[in-house]
C-alpha cells in the first residue's frame, strides 16, 4: 500500500487534473482528453504500485501531457492549474529527467509569452531545488529564464527574478557540494595548485573531470564572469542583457558561500585565478587612477570616474576573495591589498576612502587573515609588506582626517556625489564656546579635538565586530553623503580591532602559563591574567611571526593611538584607546620587544601627566620613531607646549593642583595641574601595571616614576605597611576638587592592589619591579643628599611588595632588603627611619608567614630572611639599631617558638648590641633574658652555643655592670638547662654532627654535647679575667659551680679538653694579669667604680688576688670532686703536675691571701676524693695493677716534691742586707697541715731522706718569728699557761701521724724512729734555747722577762713564739714514743735514751732558771718515765755497748737536777716548795728502786756516782748556811731523809750477791762517815751554844742519825760475820766516843735515841766468834731483781 505522501500526491494530482479537465471541457477538448487519460493512468499506478512517486516519474510524459497542453493553451486559468500541478509533481520528486526538460521548455514558452512570470520563477526555483535531474542545457535554459525575467519592466517581477537568480545560483553550487560529499577542505592542496595552470580553455563544454553538478556550476560561474566582463556567455544561451553590478553580486555570493568548491576542484580554481582576478583588477582601474584634487581631462568619459555601485561591489568582491581565498591567491591578494591601501590615499574621494576603511575593518577583525598576510608577505624578503602597509594606511588615514579635513570640504566624485567630511565650518560642533562643544544642560557629544579641529565620534563599535554601512548600500547608485566623523569612527574601530587581532594571534601562539586571578583594582572586575612564556620557547617560525606582527605595526598603531589619546574628549573612547595601548604594550612585552613596549608605556605615562611636566621626566628612544610615524612633528616646542596647555586648560576639567616632585635636576617646586583625563589615564596605567605586570620589564621604572609624581602631586603619603593615604598636613599646597577627594581612597586602594598583585608576577617580572622601585628610591636618596625633600613612595612600595610576596621570599628578599639597607644608612632622618622600619616590618611579617615546609624546618630560608636584620648591625645610627632591637623583641614575643634555625642570627643581632650605648644594651639584654628564660627549649640544640657566646658578650661589655653580672646568671641558667635536657640535646646534636665538621682538629675529638659544655666553660673563663672584680668573682663562682654540678655528664676526652683549654689557660691568664698589676694604677682604677669597696679590696692588686684565689681553689675542687674521671685521662699526670706548679707558684706569692689560699687548695687536693686503687685495672691483669700503682706513686711523689719545694722556698733564711720575707704563721700552719694527708699517699715510699726533708721544713717553719704588730694576735701574754700556736699544733700532729705510720710500717720505715726522736728532741730544746731565724733580730717571749720585752718599744720588729708549751708537748710525745719503742733495735742502737737524757738535762739543770716552770718539772717526770722503761733495757748485758755512755749522761743529769745551781726564787711558796721537793724525792726513789738494786748490771762508776749523790743529798743541810725560821723545809728535809734512808737501806742490806755486798760496803762507809760528822758537829755546836738550844732541824738531824745508827747496828748483829767487812766494824766502834759526847744533851728526844743506841754497843765490847774459814768463802748473795 502506498504511504501517506503517495496518497497525498495522487489525491492532489487527481484534483488538479479534474479541475483542468473541467476548465478545458468546452474550449480545449484536447486538454480535457489528456487530463482524463492521465487520471486513468494515475489511478492505475496508485492501485498497482507502492512507490507512487517513482511510478509516476516513470510515466512522466503521460502524466505531464495534459499539464503541458494546459500551459501551451495560454489560458491563464489553465496555465495556473497546470503550473500548480507541475509544482506538486516537482515537490514530490515525481519528475524524471525528460519530464524536467519538458517542464523547462514549457516555462521558457511562458516566459516568452509574458504569462505568470512570478509563477514561472517559483516553478523554476522549485524545479532546480527539488529535482536532481535537471542538468546541462535544460538547467542553463531555466537559469536564463530567471535572468531574463530579472530585466522585466515589472519591478516586482524583476526583484523576484533577482532573488530567484541568486537562489538558483546558490542551489546549483549546493548541488555541487552535495555531489562532492561532506568532506569540504578549507585549504588548497597541492593538486589544486598544479592543475590551476593546466586547466582547459573556456567554452561551452565543461572539463570532463567534473561531475554533472560540478559541470553545471562550472559553466554557470564561467558565464557569470563573462557577463560581468561584458562578454557573451558560453552556456547561458539566450541572455539578452546583464548588469555588471548584479553580476558582481552573484560572483561575490558564490565566492563567499562556496569557497570549499574552489579549493576542491582545480577547474574552479582556474576560473578564480584566470577569470575573476583579472576582472577585478580591470574594474579597479578607474578607482585607482582617479584623483579628486586633479582636474579631469576634457576627453574623459564618465566610465573613467569611480562609480560608487561598482566600486562598492568590487570592494565587497575583493574582501570575499581576500577573506576566503588568500591562501589560494597569494599574488592576487597581494595586489588587491595594495590596491585597497591606495584607496585610502588622501586624494581619493571620501566615500571611496570610507569604503576602503570599512573593508579594512572587516579584515582587521579576522586574526587568522592578518596572520596569513604577515606570513605570506611581510615575512618574505622580497615581498610587499602588506601587513605593515595596512596598519600604516589606517594610521595615516586617521592623521589626515585631522590635518586635511578643511581642505576636503568639497564634494568628491562628481556632481552626483555631495557627501563629504564636511566643510570648514562644519569642523566645529553646532554650538561652540572657545572651541569647546557646549549645550544647555547636556553633556557634550563624544568627539576628538586637536588643534582646534573637532571631529565627532559617531559610534562605538563592538570589539571584533565589523558592521559596514556603505558597503551594504547595494541599492545606492550615487555616492552617499558621508556623515562627519564617520570615517574617523570606523578607522578608530578598525585600529582597535587590529590591535585586538594582533593580540589574539600572538596569544594563540604563545604558550600560556596560568597565572591567577587578580584582585579587584578600582572599579574593574577581577581579571584573569596569564604569565607568558619566554619567546625563546617558541618555534623559530612562530617567534618570527609574532615579532613581525609587532614590529610591522607598532609605530603606526602607536602614532594613531597617541594622536587619538591626545585629542579624545570622550571618557569611553579614551578608555578604549588606553586599553589598546595596554594590549599592544603587553604584546611587545611578551615578545621581549623592549623599545616598542617602552614606547607604548611612555605614551600612557605621558598621558597621566600634564604635557609640559611629562616632557621633563619621561623620554624613551621609541618616542622619536612614533613622532616620525605620525608625521606631526611640531614646528617648535613652544607651539606644542602652548597647544597642549590650551587643550588641557580648555578641553579637560582641572581637578587637582599640586607641586612638582623635587628631583636632582629640578630644585624649584612648580605648580602642576591634573585633569580628569590625567586621572583616567592614571587609572589605566594602574590597570596595565596590575594586569600586565609580568611583561613590563624595565618599563616598570617609567610606570613607577609616573605614579610617584602623581602621588606626590595628589598629596598621598605613605602610611603603615606601605599603603598611601591622603594627608593635608604633609601636602598643604595641594588643591583638590571634591571629585578627586572622593577618588583618592580609590586611587590609594588601586595602588595598594597593584603592588599586592605583584604576588602573581613571575620571578623575572618581580625582579624588574623591585629594580625599578630601587632606582626610584636611589633617585630620592640622591635628591635628599641635595637638600631636597625626598619621596617615600618607592620605599613604601618596596615594603608593600615585599609583604605580599613573602611566599617566594627566596626570589625577592635579597634585592629588596639590600636596597632598604642602603636607605637605612642614609643621612636623611626620614628616609633612614622608613628604611629601617621597612626592614623590620618585612622581617616580622616573613617570620610570621605560613610557609610550606614550615619556616623552622627551612634553615636556608630562615637565614635569608634574617640576614637584613643582621646586617643592620653595621649601621652607626642609634635610631636604626633601636628599631632593629625592637624588632627582635617583637619577633621573640610573637614567633619565638618557631624560629628554628634562625636563632643564630637573632642571637648575633643581640650580641652586636654590646658595642653600643647603654640604652641599646638594655634593650638587647631584655631580649636575651627572654630567650634564656622562655625559649631555650624551643631553640635548636646547635644554637645553644651561639646563645652562650652572646650571653658572654653581654658579660664582657663595660657599660652596664649590672647587666654583666646578670648575664653571668643567665649562663648559669643555660648550664642548668643543658644539664636537665642533656639526653635530648645530645641526640639532637649528634644528628647534625654527622656532617663534616669545620672546627679545629682538637675540638673535633669532642662529642657534640661536650663541645657545648666546652663553649660554656670557655666563655665563663673569659669572664673570669674581666677587668672588673665583681664580674670576675661572679664568673669564677659560676664557672666552678657549673663544672662541679654538671661535670658528671662530660666524657673522658672532654675532661682533657676542659683541662687544657679552659682551666689551665685560665690559671695562666689570671696569674699573668695578677703579675702585671701596679698598685698606683689599680688604686686609681678602683676609685673609678661606683661600688663601695671594703679596704681589703680597695686596690686592683687585692682584687686580682681574690680572683687568683677563686680560680685556683675552683680548679683544685674540680680535681678533687672529679678525680675519678680525670684519672682516666692520658694527660692526667701532666695536668696534675701543672696544677701543682700553679699551687707552688701561688703559694710563694707575696700576697698572703693568695699563698694561704693556694695551700688550702693543695690541702683540698690531698684530702679530696681518693683515686681508685687501680684506675686502669682489669680483672686478672697484675701488670695493669702495677702500672696503675706506679702512676699513682709518681703523682704523689710530685705532690711531695711540690710540698717540699714550697716549704724550703718559703723558709729561706734571710741574709744580711736583704729585705726579710717572712711567711705568716697561718701559711706555715697550713703548709704543715698538708703533710698528714700527703703522707698517707707517700707513706709506702717514705724514706729517711724524705724524713730529713720534712724535719728541715718543720724545724725552719717553727723557728719563723712573727711581726711585732701581729704578735698580740698570735702570742698570748698569759705566759706559762699559753696554748700551742696553730703552727706548733700542726707540726706535732704531723709528727704524731708520722710516728704512727712508722709504728705500723715495715722494718725499713721503723728505722726512722731515731730521726723522729731527733726532731722531737730538737723541739724540746726550743724551750730553753729558742731557734734563730737567720740573721733576723728577734725578741723572745720565753723566759721570765718576756712580758717586758714585748711591751718595750724598740727597733726589733720580729718576735719569736713562746716555745715552752710546744717543747713540753714535744717532750710528752717523746716519752710516749719511747715507751713504745724502747726495746726497738734501732732505738737502742742509736742511743735514743742517751739523747733524751741529754736534752732533758738542760731544763733539769736550769730548774728554776728554766723559761717555763712547767718545763723542768715535765722534764723530770719525763726522765722518770723514760728511765722506768729504758733502764731495764739498758741493764741487759746484750745492750751494754749501746748504753755505755748513757750512764754518764744520766749521772750528770741527776746531779744537775738534784743539786741545781739555780736556787728557787724567794717568792716560791711553801706548798710549791714541797711539791718541787717531792719531784726530787721521786728521783731518789728511782735510784733506790731501779738503779741500786741492779748494781750488778750497772757500771760501778755510775753506782759510785749514785751513792755519792745519795750521800750528798743526805748531808745537804750542812752545806748551806740557812737562817732560822722555816729553814727545815728549805733544806729539803724530806729529800735528805729519803737520801739518808736509801743510803742507810743499802748500808744495812745483806744478801748473797757479792755485788750487793759491794754496794753495802760503800753505803756503810758513807753512812758511818756521815754519822760521825753529824755527831761531832752537834757536840761542838751544843758546847758553843751554851744554854741556848740548837735549831730544831739540827736536833731532828741528830735524832735521825742516832736512830739510823741504832738500825745499822741492829742489822749488823743479825748479819753473818763474814758478810760484814772488818772496816765497817771498826768505823762503828770508832763512832762510840762521839755518841758518849752526846749524853749531855738536854733534849728528851735525843736522849731517848741515844740511850737505844748505846745499849746496842754492849754486844760490841767483845769481839764475836768467827766461823770456819770454809764457811767464810761462800757468803750468801741477795737475789737480783728481775727487770
Automatic annotation (TrEMBL):
It comes from the Eukaryota. Pfam families: DCB, Mon2_C, Sec7-like_HDS, Sec7-like_HUS. Residues 182-207, 413-438, 1663-1683 are annotated as: Disordered. Keywords: Protein transport, Transport. SUPFAM superfamilies: ARM repeat. Residues 214-386 form the Mon2/Sec7/BIG1-like HUS domain. This is Protein MON2 homolog. It comes from Branchiostoma belcheri. The gene is LOC109477386.
Amino acid at each position: 500500500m502506498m504511504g501517506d505522501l503517495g496518497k497525498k500526491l495522487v489525491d492532489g494530482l487527481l484534483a488538479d487534473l479534474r479541475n483542468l479537465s473541467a476548465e478545458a471541457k468546452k474550449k480545449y477538448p484536447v486538454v480535457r482528453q489528456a487530463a482524463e487519460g492521465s487520471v486513468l493512468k494515475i489511478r492505475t499506478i496508485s492501485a498497482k504500485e507502492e512507490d507512487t512517486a517513482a511510478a509516476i516519474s516513470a510515466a512522466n510524459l503521460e502524466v505531464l501531457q495534459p499539464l503541458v497542453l494546459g500551459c501551451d493553451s495560454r489560458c491563464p486559468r489553465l496555465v495556473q492549474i497546470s503550473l500548480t500541478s507541475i509544482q506538486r509533481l516537482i515537490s514530490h520528486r515525481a519528475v524524471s529527467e525528460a519530464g524536467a526538460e519538458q517542464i523547462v521548455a514549457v516555462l521558457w514558452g511562458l516566459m516568452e509569452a509574458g504569462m505568470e512570470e512570478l509563477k514561472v520563477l517559483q516553478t523554476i526555483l522549485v524545479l532546480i531545488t527539488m529535482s536532481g535531474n535537471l542538468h546541462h542545457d535544460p538547467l542553463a535554459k531555466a537559469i536564463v529564464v530567471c535572468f531574463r525575467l530579472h530585466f522585466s519592466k515589472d519591478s516586482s517581477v524583476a526583484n523576484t527574478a533577482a532573488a530567484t537568480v541568486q537562489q538558483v545560483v546558490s542551489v546549483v553550487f549546493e548541488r555541487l557540494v552535495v555531489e562532492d560529499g561532506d568532506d569540504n577542505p578549507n585549504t588548497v592542496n597541492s593538486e589544486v595548485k598544479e592543475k590551476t595552470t593546466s586547466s582547459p580553455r573556456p567554452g561551452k563544454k565543461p572539463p570532463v573531470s567534473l561531475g554533472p553538478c560540478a559541470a553545471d556550476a562550472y559553466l554557470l560561474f564561467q558565464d557569470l564572469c563573462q557577463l560581468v566582463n561584458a562578454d557573451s556567455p558560453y552556456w547561458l544561451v539566450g541572455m539578452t542583457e546583464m548588469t555588471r553590478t548584479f553580476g558582481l553580486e552573484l560572483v561575490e555570493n558564490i565566492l563567499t558561500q562556496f569557497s570549499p568548491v574552489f579549493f576542491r576542484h582545480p577547474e574552479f580554481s582556474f576560473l578564480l585565478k584566470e577569470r575573476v582576478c583579472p576582472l577585478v583588477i580591470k574594474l579597479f582601474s578607474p578607482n585607482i587612477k582617479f584623483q579628486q584634487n586633479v582636474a579631469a581631462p576634457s576627453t574623459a568619459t564618465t566610465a573613467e570616474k569611480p562609480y560608487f555601485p561598482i566600486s562598492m561591489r568590487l570592494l565587497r568582491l575583493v574582501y570575499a576573495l581576500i577573506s576566503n581565498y588568500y591562501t589560494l591567491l597569494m599574488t592576487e591578494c597581494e595586489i588587491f591589498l595594495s590596491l585597497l591601501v591606495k584607496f585610502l590615499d588622501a586624494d581619493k574621494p571620501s566615500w571611496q576612502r570610507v569604503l576602503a576603511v570599512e573593508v579594512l575593518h572587516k579584515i582587521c577583525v579576522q586574526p587568522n587573515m592578518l596572520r596569513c598576510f604577515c606570513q605570506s608577505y611581510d615575512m618574505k624578503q622580497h615581498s610587499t609588506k602588506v601587513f605593515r602597509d595596512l596598519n600604516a594606511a589606517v594610521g595615516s588615514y586617521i592623521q589626515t582626517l585631522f590635518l586635511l579635513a578643511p581642505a576636503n570640504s568639497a564634494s568628491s566624485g562628481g556632481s552626483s556625489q555631495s557627501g563629504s567630511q564636511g566643510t570648514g565650518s562644519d569642523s566645529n560642533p553646532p554650538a561652540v564656546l572657545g572651541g569647546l562643544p557646549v549645550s544647555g544642560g547636556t553633556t557634550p557629544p563624544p568627539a576628538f579635538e586637536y588643534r582646534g579641529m573637532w571631529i565627532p565620534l559617531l559610534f562605538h563599535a563592538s570589539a571584533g565586530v565589523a558592521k559596514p554601512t556603505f558597503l551594504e548600500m547595494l541599492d545606492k547608485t550615487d555616492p552617499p553623503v558621508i556623515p562627519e566623523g564617520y570615517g574617523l569612527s570606523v578607522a578608530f574601530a578598525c585600529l582597535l580591532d587590529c590591535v585586538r587581532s594582533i593580540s589574539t594571534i600572538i596569544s594563540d601562539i604563545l604558550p600560556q602559563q596560568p597565572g591567577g586571578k587578580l584582585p579587584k583594582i578600582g572599579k574593574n572586575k577581577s581579571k584573569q591574567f596569564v604569565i607568558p612564556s619566554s619567546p625563546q620557547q617558541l618555534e623559530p617560525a612562530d617567534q618570527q611571526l609574532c615579532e613581525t606582527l609587532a614590529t610591522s605595526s607598532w609605530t603606526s598603531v602607536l602614532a594613531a593611538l597617541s594622536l587619538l589619546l591626545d585629542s579624545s574628549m570622550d571618557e569611553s573612547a579614551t578608555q578604549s584607546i588606553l586599553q589598546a595601548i595596554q594590549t599592544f604594550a603587553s604584546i611587545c612585552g611578551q615578545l621581549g620587544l623592549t623599545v616598542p613596549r617602552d614606547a607604548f608605556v611612555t605614551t600612557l605615562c605621558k598621558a597621566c601627566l600634564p604635557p609640559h611636566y611629562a616632557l621633563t621626566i619621561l623620554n624613551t628612544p621609541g618616542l622619536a620613531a612614533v613622532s616620525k610615524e605620525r608625521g606631526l612633528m611640531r614646528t617648535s616646542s613652544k607651539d606644542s607646549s602652548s597647544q597642549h596647555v590650551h587643550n588641557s586648560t580648555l578641553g579637560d576639567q582641572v581637578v587637582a593642583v599640586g607641586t612638582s616632585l623635587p628631583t636632582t635636576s629640578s630644585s624649584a617646586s612648580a605648580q602642576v595641574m591634573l585633569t580628569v583625563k590625567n586621572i583616567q589615564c592614571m587609572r589605566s596605567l594602574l590597570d596595565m601595571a596590575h594586569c600586565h605586570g609580568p611583561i613590563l620589564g624595565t618599563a616598570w621604572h617609567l610606570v613607577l616614576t609616573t605614579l610617584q609624581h602623581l602621588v606626590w602631586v595628589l598629596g598621598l603619603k605613605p602610611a603603615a605597611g606601605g599603603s598611601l593615604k591622603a594627608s593635608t598636613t604633609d601636602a598643604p599646597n595641594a588643591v583638590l576638587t571634591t571629585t578627586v577627594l572622593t577618588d583618592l581612597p580609590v586611587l590609594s586602594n588601586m595602588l595598594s592592589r597593584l603592588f599586592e598583585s605583584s604576588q602573581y608576577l613571575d620571578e623575572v617580572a618581580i625582579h624588574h619591579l623591585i629594580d625599578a622601585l630601587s632606582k626610584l628610591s636611589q633617585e630620592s636618596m640622591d635628591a635628599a643628599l641635595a637638600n631636597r625633600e625626598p619621596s617615600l613612595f618607592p620605599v613604601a612600595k618596596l615594603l608593600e611588595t615585599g609583604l605580599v610576596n613573602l611566599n617566594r621570599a627566596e626570589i625577592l628578599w635579597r634585592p629588596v632588603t639590600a636596597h632598604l639597607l642602603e636607605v637605612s644608612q642614609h643621612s636623611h632622618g626620614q628616609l633612614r627611619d622608613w628604611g629601617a622600619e621597612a626592614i623590620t616590618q618585612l622581617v616580622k611579617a616573613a617570620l610570621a608567614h605560613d610557609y610550606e615546609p614550615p619556616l623552622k624546618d627551612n634553615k636556608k630560608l630562615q637565614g635569608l630572611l634574617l640576614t637584613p636584620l643582621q646586617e643592620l648591625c653595621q649601621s652607626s645610627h642609634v635610631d636604626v639599631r633601636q628599631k632593629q632591637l625592637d624588632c627582635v623583641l617583637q619577633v621573640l614575643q610573637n614567633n619565638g617558638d618557631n624560629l628554628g634555625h634562625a636563632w643564630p642570627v637573632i642571637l648575633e643581632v643581640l650580641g652586636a648590641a654590646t658595642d653600643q650605648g647603654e640604652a641599646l644594651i638594655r634593650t638587647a639584654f631584655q631580649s636575651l633574658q627572654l630567650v634564656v628564660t622562655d625559649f631555650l627549649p624551643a631553640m635548636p640544640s646547635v644554637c645553644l652555643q651561639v646563645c652562650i657566646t652572646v650571653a658572654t658578650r653581654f658579660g664582657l661589655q663595660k657599660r652596664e655592670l649590672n647587666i654583666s653580672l646578670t648575664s653571668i646568671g643567665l649562663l648559669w641558667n643555660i648550664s642548668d638547662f643543658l644539664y636537665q635536657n642533656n639526653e635530648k640535646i645530645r641526640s639532637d646534636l649528634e644528628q647534625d654532627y654527622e656532617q663534616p665538621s669545620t672546627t679545629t682538629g682538637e675540638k673535633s675529638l669532642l662529642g657534640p654535647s661536650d663541645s657545648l659544655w666546652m663553649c660554656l666553660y670557655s666563655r665563663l673563663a673569659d669572664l673570669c679575667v674581666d677587668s672588673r672584680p665583681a664580674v670576675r668573682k661572679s664568673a669564677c663562682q659560676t664557672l666552678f659551680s657549673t663544672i662541679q654540678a654538671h661535670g658528671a655528664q662530660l666524657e673522658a676526652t672532654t675532661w682533657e679538653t676542659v683541662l687544657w683549654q679552659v682551666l689551665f689557660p685560665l690559671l695562666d691568664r689570671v696569674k699573668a694579669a695578677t703579675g702585671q698589676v701596679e698598685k698606683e694604677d689599680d688604686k686609681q682604677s678602683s676609685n673609678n667604680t661606683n661600688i663601695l669597696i671594703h679596704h681589703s679590696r680597695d686596690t686592683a692588686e687585692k682584687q686580682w688576688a681574690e680572683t687568683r684565689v677563686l680560680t685556683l681553689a675552683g680548679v683544685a675542687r674540680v680535681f678533687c670532686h672529679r678525680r675519678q674521671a680525670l684519672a682516666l685521662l692520658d694527660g692526667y699526670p701532666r695536668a696534675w703536675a701543672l696544677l701543682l706548679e700553679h699551687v707552688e707558684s701561688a703559694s710563694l706569692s707575696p700576697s698572703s691571701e693568695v699563698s694561704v689560699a693556694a695551700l688550702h687548695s693543695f690541702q683540698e687536693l690531698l684530702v679530696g676524693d681518693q683515686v681508685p686503687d687501680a684506675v686502669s685495672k682489669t680483672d686478672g691483669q697484675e701488670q695493669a695493677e702495677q702500672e696503675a700503682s706506679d702512676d699513682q706513686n709518681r703523682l704523689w711523689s710530685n705532690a711531695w716534691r711540690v710540698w717540699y719545694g714550697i716549704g724550703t722556698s718559703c723558709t729561706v733564711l734571710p741574709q744580711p742586707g736583704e729585705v726579710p720575707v717572712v711567711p705568716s704563721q697561718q701559711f706555715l700552719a697550713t703548709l704543715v697541715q698538708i703533710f698528714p694527708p700527703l703522707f698517707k699517699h707517700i707513706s709506702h715510699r717514705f724514706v729517711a731522706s724524705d724524713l730529713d726533708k720534712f724535719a728541715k721544713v718543720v724545724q725552719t717553719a717553727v723557728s719563723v718569728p712573727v711581726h711585732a704588730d701581729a704578735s698580740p694576735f698570735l702570742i698570748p701574754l698569759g705566759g706559762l699557761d699559753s696554748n700551742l700556736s696553730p703552727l706548733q699544733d700542726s707540726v706535732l700532729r704531723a709528727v704524731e701521724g708520722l710516728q704512727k705510720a712508722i709504728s705500723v710500717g715495715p722494718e725499713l720505715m721503723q728505722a726512722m724512729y731515731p730521726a723522729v726522736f731527733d726532731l722531737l728532741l730538737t723541739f724540746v730544746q726550743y724551750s730553753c734555747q729558742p731557734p734563730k731565724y737567720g740573721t733576723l733580730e728577734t725578741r723572745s717571749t720565753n723566759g721570765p722577762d718576756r712580758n717586758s720585752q714585748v711591751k718595750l718599744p724598740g727597733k726589733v720588729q720580729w718576735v719569736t713564739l713562746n716555745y715552752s708549751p710546744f717543747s713540753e708537748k714535744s717532750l710528752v710525745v717523746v716519752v710516749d714514743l719511747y715507751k713504745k719503742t724502747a726495746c726497738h733495735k734501732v732505738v737502742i742502737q742509736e742511743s735514743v735514751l742517751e739523747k733524751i737524757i741529754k736534752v732533758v738535762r738542760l731544763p733539769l739543770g736550769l730548774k728554776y732558771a728554766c723559761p717555763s716552770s712547767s718545763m723542768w718539772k715535765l722534764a723530770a717526770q719525763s726522765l722518770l718515765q723514760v728511765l722506768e722503761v729504758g733502764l731495764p733495757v739498758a741493764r741487759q748485758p746484750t745492750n751494754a755497748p749501746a748504753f755505755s755512755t748513757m750512764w754518764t749522761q744520766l749521772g750528770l743529769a741527776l746531779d744537775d737536777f738534784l743539786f741545781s745551781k739555780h736556787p728557787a726564787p724567794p717568792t716560791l711558796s711553801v706548798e710549791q716548795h714541797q711539791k718541787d721537793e717531792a719531784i726530787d724525792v721521786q728521783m731518789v726513789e728511782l735510784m733506790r728502786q731501779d738503779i741500786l738494786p741492779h748494781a750488778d748490771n750497772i757500771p760501778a762508776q755510775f753506782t759510785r756516782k749514785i751513792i755519792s749523790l745519795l750521800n750528798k743529798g743526805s748531808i745537804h743541810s750542812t752545806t748551806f748556811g740557812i737562817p732560822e725560821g722555816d729553814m727545815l723545809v728549805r733544806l729539803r728535809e724530806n729529800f735528805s731523809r729519803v737520801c739518808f734512808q736509801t743510803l742507810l737501806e743499802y748500808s744495812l742490806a745483806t744478801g748473797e750477791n757479792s755485788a750487793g755486798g759491794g754496794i753495802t760496803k760503800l753505803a756503810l762507809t758513807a753512812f758511818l762517815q756521815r754519822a760521825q760528822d753529824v755527831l761531832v758537829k752537834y757536840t761542838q755546836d751544843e758546847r758553843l751554844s751554851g744554854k741556848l738550844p740548837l735549831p730544831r732541824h739540827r736536833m731532828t738531824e741528830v735524832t735521825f742519825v742516832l736512830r739510823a745508827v741504832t738500825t745499822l747496828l741492829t742489822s749488823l748483829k743479825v748479819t753473818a760475820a763474814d758478810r760484814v767487812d772488818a772496816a765497817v766494824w771498826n768505823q762503828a766502834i770508832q763512832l762510840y766516843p762521839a755518841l758518849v759526847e752526846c749524853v749531855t744533851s738536854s733534849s728528851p728526844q735525843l736522849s731517848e735515841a741515844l740511850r737505844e743506841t748505846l745499849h746496842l754497843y754492849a754486844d760490841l765490847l767483845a769481839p764475836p766468834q768467827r766461823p770456819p774459814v770454809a764457811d767464810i768463802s761462800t757468803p750468801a748473795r741477795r737475789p737480783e731483781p728481775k727487770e
